[in-house]
Design brief:
This protein is mainly alpha-helical and 331 residues long. The chain contains 14 helices and six strands. The strands form three sheets. A two-stranded antiparallel sheet has the order 1-6. Strands 2-3 form a two-stranded antiparallel ribbon. The chain has a two-stranded antiparallel ribbon with strand order 4-5. This is Reticulocalbin-1.
């Protein structure tokens, strides 16, 4: 398993996978999948390694996730630069010809927020079967698990049986946590909290609990070092561990395991995946400015951004092709 991407919080933002083909008719939605983890805050920007095409992917996925970061892959360099230039004008909110870290941070947060609500809008009709602009637990359960519940014999000897059996009660628990008024029916806001729990304060405990359940293979209610490593690295050839794995073991001992008892409890997991003192958008904005600010005046001209276009292309700060045509007052 590759390093890094398997632990980013954006995976949580993906929520559901739709259209699992288990039968020829009707929607076969797959239940919520294993959550990806938060990547630890980067080292000081000055210590960050030189960028290349591979490490640009960090910046792209930090904003969008893997799928949306591919949008610009279909464009020529000239087309990418042209689109990027138009978006820079949007980011420069005061029109002074410079993009500051604050302006970039605000833009990143705004587009991330819209991505989440657009994601919910795309799947809404698949679950709101009676078109009452609400989604009941029964509607969601039937859309996601209906075929499994109606044809259990087909799953008895398959890995899907274990997956569905495990995920149905887990989804129900998460749905009820998102359902603030307890009527087992989700409004758009409540369904957004269900699909994207990391974005809502009242859902943070669910995020922590699901992470613990995913990684805690021996079921003791804690995450030990081997379980922590196994979540991000599969030892397939019985050879020596890569240096980055050894570094992660040190991270576990020195920074994750706060009480030094050799394992992570819920509080330590929360501190790991939901760090209170880390603003992802601020960190990414600072990084983009640092890497592109040729004259070191701590702000970017359009020319500086276009000169470093390959770093920006594909990130949510500069992506979302529809951004140039949508109503920009909607957020």
């Amino acid at each position: 398993m590759a390093r890094g991407g398997s632990r980013r919080l954006q995976g949580l933002a993906l929520g559901l996978l739709l259209a699992l083909v288990l039968a020829p008719r009707a929607l076969r939605a797959k239940p919520t999948v294993r959550k990806e983890r938060v990547v630890r805050p980067d080292s000081e920007l000055g210590e960050r390694p030189p960028e290349d095409n591979q490490s640009f992917q960090y910046d792209h996925e930090a904003f969008l996730g893997k799928e949306d970061s591919k949008t610009f892959d279909q464009l020529t360099p000239d087309e990418s630069k042209e689109r990027l230039g138009k978006i820079v004008d949007r980011i420069d909110s005061d029109g002074d010809g410079f993009v500051t870290t604050e302006e970039l941070k605000i833009w990143i947060k705004r587009v991330q927020k819209r991505y989440i609500y657009d994601n919910v809008a795309k799947v809404w009709k698949d679950y709101d079967r009676d078109k009452d602009d609400k989604i009941s637990w029964e509607e969601y359960k039937q859309a996601t698990y209906g075929y499994y519940l109606g044809n259990p014999a087909e799953f008895q000897d398959s890995s899907d049986h274990h997956t569905f059996k495990k995920m149905l009660p887990r989804d129900e628990r998460r749905f009820k946590a998102a359902d603030l008024d307890g009527d087992l029916t989700a409004t758009r806001e409540e369904f957004t909290a269900f699909l994207h729990p990391e974005e809502f304060e009242h859902m943070k405990e669910i995020v922590v609990l699901e992470t613990l359940e995913d990684i805690d293979k021996n079921g003791d209610g804690f995450v030990d070092q081997d379980e922590y490593i196994a979540d991000m690295f599969s030892h397939e050839d019985n050879g020596p561990e890569p240096d980055w794995v050894l570094s992660e073991r040190e991270q576990f001992s020195d920074f994750r395991d706060l009480n030094k008892d050799g394992k992570l409890d819920k509080d330590e997991i929360r501190h790991w995946i939901l760090p209170q003192d880390y603003d992802h958008a601020q960190a990414e904005a600072r990084h983009l400015v640092y890497e592109s600010d040729k004259n070191k005046d701590e702000k970017l001209t359009k020319e500086e951004i276009l000169d470093n276009w390959n770093m920006f292309v594909g990130s949510q700060a500069t992506n979302y092709g529809e951004d140039l045509t949508k109503n920009h007052d909607e957020l």
